[in-house]
Amino acid sequence: MFEDLQPAPADKILALIGLFRADPRPGKVDLGVGVYKDRDGKTPVMRAVREAEKRLLQSQDTKTYLGLAGDTGFNTAMAGLVFGPAAELTRIRAAQAPGGSGALRLVAELLKRTRSDATIWLSDPTWPNHMPVMRAAGLQIRVYPYFDTASGAVRFADMISALATAKSGDVVLLHGCCHNPTGANLDTAQWAEIADLVVERGLLPFVDIAYQGFGEGLDADAVGLRLLAAKVPEMVVASSCSKNFAVYRDRVGAAMILAKDSTQADVAMSQMLSAARAMYSMPPDHGAAAVRIVLEDATLRADWEAELEEMRLRMLRLRVQLAEALRRHSNSDRFDFVASHRGMFSRLGLSEAQVERLRAEHGVYMVGDSRINVAGLPEDGMDALAKAIVSVLD
Ligand code: LMR
């Protein structure tokens, strides 16, 4: 049965987890997988989530099925968190999904059911799992230019020119904030231009918001998404709680639909839930229930927001420290963009061979395209790291 199979290539990001763990060198630095880490390299359970879990343990008296959409309180709270207080909730539906990837796949399945020949446009570069997820749902894929490696900036004019050639009914996947892997983001005026373009050309925006709260703040990070929601007749969203609630392994995300009206929203939701039934039936409950408890309780929510803000500010400080250290050691402003990028990642613009040398010679782990996880930067070893990076430049 399996004799004709070839081994699947390892996922380039997830493979780093095993490689890093197996490295015995004491000074090794993990800038790989997108997981928040504190000063000690730990990824703690957030205070409010731990408290919510305690309450859940005490109050939960059954584990019977909830239904295909999971926890409805969670879904309502997530729609509010993402779309904001001004959202037209009658046109919005949300379904709990197994993490951000599960939400992406669920939306992709809905798109395939809506239009069997749907084409989705992805940014170049994008998160490496976007393509496999969209392909698995049977969508056609095209890419639009996004990032200028030399300057570390968004190639906005090129992005707009490419999207201007998209056909009516095509789908445009946009990173809501904290672009993964580049860290280069659209500003509000650019979001407004994109909103005009998608309306004019009849495109469907699909916003992946996996890092809300890691860039400029919880509301500021949703500005582009909300601006679109105010202008477009329809859009879809995949959101994740993996990072901003640090519930990575619990698999918590939400797939959302903004439809023309409430009736169309119900129909689209029913199709999305029928797709869920065929893939995994119902999402896992625990993490989403904990997130719902946090979001519905004013005190826990305030504490979660405060801890999230501490994490965000720490990443910003680390960005500045790395940019300054690289400026000192390279005698150039080549890496200054690291300080102006936002979110968990920046792409340094190194070759695969240079990334490999950093791993082999210095125990510094990053994704092959030179994406670094800013949260993994060593507060007390920034100069050594910058020196190592500069040493592989030529
Ligand atoms: C990442 O980009 O590192 C994270 O989103 C983890 C993953 O699943 O790839």
Automatic annotation (TrEMBL):
Its cofactor is pyridoxal 5'-phosphate. The keyword Transferase applies. It is an enzyme of class 2 (transferase). The keyword Nucleotide-binding does not apply. Keywords: Aminotransferase, Coiled coil, Pyridoxal phosphate, Transferase. It comes from the Bacteria. GO terms for cellular component: cytosol. One of its GO terms (biological process) is L-phenylalanine biosynthetic process from chorismate via phenylpyruvate. Residues 301-328 form a coiled coil. Signal peptide: none annotated. Residues 27-389 form the Aminotransferase class I/classII large domain. Its EC number is 2.6.1.-. GO terms for molecular function: identical protein binding; L-aspartate:2-oxoglutarate aminotransferase activity; L-tyrosine-2-oxoglutarate transaminase activity; pyridoxal phosphate binding. Belongs to the class-I pyridoxal-phosphate-dependent aminotransferase family. Homodimer. PANTHER family: ASPARTATE AMINOTRANSFERASE (PTHR11879), ASPARTATE AMINOTRANSFERASE, MITOCHONDRIAL (PTHR11879:SF22). This is Aminotransferase. It comes from Mesorhizobium delmotii.
